[in-house]
Amino acid sequence: MNAPGGLRGVLEAAQARRAAGTAFALALVTDTEGSTYRKAGALALVPADGTRTGTISGGCLEPALEALCQDAIARGQPGVAVFDTRDDDDLLFGSGSGCRGRMRVLAWPLPGAGDPLLDALLDAHAAGSPLDLSVSVDEANLGTLAFDGSAPAGFLPVRIAPVRQLLLLGAGPEAPPLLRLAHTLGWDTTVADHREGLLRATRLPEAHALLAMKPAAALAAAPRQPDAVLVMTHLASADLEALRALSALDVPYVGLLGPPGRRDELLAELEPALREALLPRLHAPAGLFLGGEGPEAIALAIAADLQRFFHAPR
To answer: Is residue 1 one of the residues assigned to a domain?
Structure first.
């Protein structure tokens, strides 16, 4: 199985490198202007051998990123680089990206100056929370971090979005392709189904956790509230149980698999107060209308809608 993408991939690589005792650097995009491939809060990891995890560009800036990180490792001190592709000269003499943007990247060596950053990232990940920090970009205090909400002069505030938590209530035919997409995007995923035969680890290798439970029990057992829950048991009674339980929870995104007629029948079974509490968060049928049919097309439509929901400007 391939490594996960996104922040989750960076954190898992960092934990593995730390456990192995190998040197590496964490690189953080602190601020940007104009058109850039990544925005403030993006992270990448570069070990001494150059096997990078994460990106800050489409590839044009990665050689310079690796040089920045390897220099920070060699010196044992934070380093900074500013990549400015707004000038026409960059097309001929620079990266040649044509992105017309400016990006500042700071790198911290680990073990060393980057350890507080990684510790804070791991704590935020465990809590499912964003990490708000301030970082100094002044030469005298370059890379100094503050996590107490303060932003003294010369410090930039940065927010690192959390890894999204996705709960699938139902392990039917759409679950394996949806888990593969979620893994690529770096989401944490849990699958719950009372039909234990569907929960084989070999069938769902990308799942972070497998729960042999009915929907209400799975929601009660969750260590913390997921960002999104997909109701996809293909059983009307189990889906109704899930919707009833979800009406009392503040899950931002509730997706229901199935056609509009089935949705309406299930909602009609809910008490009016429960239905009113659920409707503002309910996406039914789940997924963007992309065309196609079958489990893979449905999984793609759902993944696309989740990506839109959590990342589209509001």
So the answer is: no
